[in-house]
Amino acid sequence: MKNTKKQHLPQKTCPVCGLPFTWRKKWEKNWDSVKYCSEKCRRNKTTSV
């Protein structure tokens, strides 16, 4: 993902809050397994909107 502009980064939609979130460097090795946009949404996954 080096030298990629922000608008060209992959996006996913959070199943809890429904908001889109983009790829982050810390998720580089496990992007396929990332489901939630934040730790807060991961903790509240049973109370989805």
TrEMBL record:
This is DUF2256 domain-containing protein. It comes from Subsaximicrobium wynnwilliamsii. Pfam families: DUF2256 (PF10013). It comes from the Bacteria. PANTHER family: DUF2256 DOMAIN-CONTAINING PROTEIN (PTHR37463:SF1), GSL3115 PROTEIN (PTHR37463).
